[in-house]
Amino acid sequence: MGSVLMVRSHKRYVTLVFLFSLFLCVSASVSHYSIPEEMKEGSVVANLATDLSLDVKTLNKRRMRLDIIASKKYLDVNKETGELYVVEKIDREYLCNTKLSCYLKLEMILENPLRIFNIEVEILDINDNAPQFRRDAIHLDISEATPKGERFSLSNAVDPDVGSNSVNTYHLNGSKFAELILIKTLDREQQAVHNLILTAVDGGTPARSGTASVIVHVLDTNDNAPTFGKSVYNVQVLENSPIGSLVIDLNATDLDEGSNSDVTYSYSLYTSEKTQETFNLNPSTGEITIKDMLNYEDFRIYDMEVIATDKGANSLSGQCTIKIIVEDMNDNHPEISIKSFQTPVSESIEVDTVISVVSVSDKDSGDNGVVDLRIPDNMPFKLRESSDNYYELVVSEPLDREKVPEYVITFTVTDRGSPPLSDNETMTLELLDVNDNVPQFPQSFYTIRVMENNAPGDLLSSLTAFDPDLHENQYLVYFILEKEIANTSMSMLFSINPENGNLYALKTFDYEIEKEFLFHIEARDSGSPPLSSNVTVHIIIVDQNDNAPVIVSPWRAHDGFVPKPFWLCKCVRNWDDYMFAAMVS
Ligand SMILES: *[C@@H]1O[C@H](CO)[C@@H](O)[C@H](O)[C@H]1NC(C)=O
Ligand SMILES: *[C@@H]1O[C@H](CO)[C@@H](O)[C@H](O)[C@H]1NC(C)=O
Ligand SMILES: *[C@@H]1O[C@H](CO)[C@@H](O)[C@H](O)[C@H]1NC(C)=O
Ligand SMILES: *[C@@H]1O[C@H](CO)[C@@H](O)[C@H](O)[C@H]1NC(C)=O
Ligand SMILES: *[C@@H]1O[C@H](CO)[C@@H](O)[C@H](O)[C@H]1NC(C)=O
Fold first, then answer.
1. Which pLDDT tens digit goes with each residue over 361-394?
2. Does domain 232-327 match CATH 2.60.40.10?
3. Rounded Cα distance, 351 and 349, in Å
4. What is the SS3 assignment for 493?
5. Ligand 3 pocket, mutate which of 333, 424, 425, 427 (most atoms under 8 A from CB)
6. Where are the domains of the chain?
7. Span from the CA of 225 to the centroid of ligand 2 (angstroms)
8. Which atom of ligand 1 lies closest to the CA of 173?
9. Domain 445-542: assigned CATH number
10. Is the pTM here over 0.70, yes or no?
């Protein structure tokens, strides 16, 4: 407060009252003054000398003094001027607390003669205190369910000032409420705490104010149902996933608080027994896990409905559906089924003839169920797809039993899963012989030398042919082909064992009569039709020295042949040459 205002208010408040007493020494009159509290030290309240008509010059001599009935010496008097002035700031509230009127009672004492004046100084309230709330924050708990119009009292503010300087009005963030009135129902889920400022304003000029925050905690009621993030969940699960594997972790949320938002999960009646037996639903966490092995080949889609219920007084619930789609895993081996297999077959079977029909299958789906059938390479067969998953094994090249008598064919089926699975089946194809080979002699021409004078029945040679065919196709019969040399039946001279081709002489040969024979021997198999081949046999009779020399006259012709003794001697050294020369002649 400025000093100009001070002076003005001083003049305004100071009033003088004279009351005359009948007593001499103690004036019955009471001088009354009014001053505002909180005046500055040294401020003059009044001139007592003037007001009481005292001679200023005598005051000092008469030992003028003040007696204050108070704990402090607030005021004093100037002995030179007679002025009453403020020694110490006066706090009305300290002095008088909440009393509406506040007085300082003083006695001014003068001696020679003794006189006592009673003085009353009224301490006027100024608005030096702002309203104050006992606590800075006022906490209120109000349920969401509280109807509008409900009133809540707030604690009052106190202002030690009095009268109009004391608390006059309350404001709550601008709007004027002495008490808190609910004008709109609360929604904890929208705003759980409302922070308000309660302002208390006094009626002083200028007005002072004090504030407290009003914190309204909105108490929850179960007014929200649990909700799932989505109404439908589609989940894919691999078949054969281990028991206990997590399928989905459901999180129903309930905007309420405490038990009103505590959710338990359960299957609805709509969820089939089988589904409930296959999947476990944890009632408190909402986790759905695998309870029983999943087999894509048995069951592919599970539909379930889960209900989330809160634990509030009037429990509310929400639901969602979950579609669990089982995904295929390559867990089934492909299978081969031999529908037909023709064995044995003739080695002369034609190219493109169907030998076997094979079907393949795989219970898996997608690539896991797509299969490829193979047979080993380097086989005179090929696979031909006849219809879906049916294959024919056909001959791709001419067969020859004599080279490969049987084939071990392994059918291998492999799926395209990852890793792939396979299966195999092995079949043996036997070939039946066909008489397609002629008997064969190791040589095409046999020269056999036989010493003359041999014994009849002597084994001359063994002429064995070979036939790679089988059984009767291989079983050979040997015989001598006749009518080679006119008038000579070779069968009279030689015989051959039809079974083993041993050639025997039937008579004793005499070089001097017969020197050689030429004929054919045939080997014939027993196939149908039979096949045969022949060889030429040249029998040469070898001369022995079995004749004594005979002297014949050189001039006597004998068969036109005229040997000369010296020529003979010369030639005899080589009987073979001689014999040959003789034959040729
Ligand atoms: C009241 O005032 C306080 C402080 O200014 C503020 O935080 C709060 O939001 C206000 N409340 C309303 C209802 O306006
Ligand atoms: C549920 O919450 C968990 C943890 O936050 C999360 O991993 C999971 O994906 C949520 N489930 C759904 C269906 O959103
Ligand atoms: C055939 O299958 C068996 C097992 O079933 C396997 O040991 C063998 O190696 C397979 N053979 C071929 C040629 O794939
Ligand atoms: C063949 O034999 C017959 C009688 O067996 C005979 O008449 C004929 O002259 C003979 N021929 C030769 C060339 O020896
Ligand atoms: C002997 O075999 C040859 C072919 O090797 C054939 O030409 C001939 O006719 C056969 N001889 C007889 C008598 O069958």
1. 999 998 999 999 999 999 999 999 999 999 999 9
2. no
3. 7
4. helix
5. 424
6. 4-124, 132-219, 232-327, 335-432, 445-542
7. 19
8. 1
9. 2.60.40.60
10. no
